[in-house]
Amino acid sequence: MSDVFDNKDDNESKFVLTENLIEKGNEGDISSSVYEMFRNDSEKRIRDKVKPEFHEDFDGIHCVECGDEIPEGRLALQKVKCVFCQEAFEKIEKMYNKNS
Question: pLDDT tens digit string along 47-67?
Fold first, then answer.
């Protein structure tokens, strides 16, 4: 069933494929496919959140937003924003996504 949801970014395709499974499949197939879809989406969100960041103005030490030094732990994770700027970015992103 891993190939059931090839296009993981297209929610409409997922819905159509899920509807087709409901019409053709048994409860176990449907449950497995829906579980796999949610797991794949969760894994993608986690991978996106922890992946290294790149910015053309990053000097390897200072936040690209405010210029403050980035803590060593964040630098080890290859992040380009300090904790304060990252938290502010996430709050704005969360508010934007709520209103969309």
Answer: 887 788 889 999 999 999 999
- 20-47 residues labelled b (16+ CB within 10 A) or e (exposed): ebeeebeeeeeeebbeebeeeeeeeeee
Is 75 within 8 Å of 52 (Cβ atoms)?
no
Stated pTM of the model:
0.53
Q: Which residues contact 78 (CB under 8 A, 6 or more apart)?
A: 52, 53
Beta strands in the chain (DSSP E): none
User: Residue 48 carries which side chain, given as an amino acid letter?
Assistant: D
At residue 92, what are phi and psi to the nearest 5 degrees?
A: -65, -45
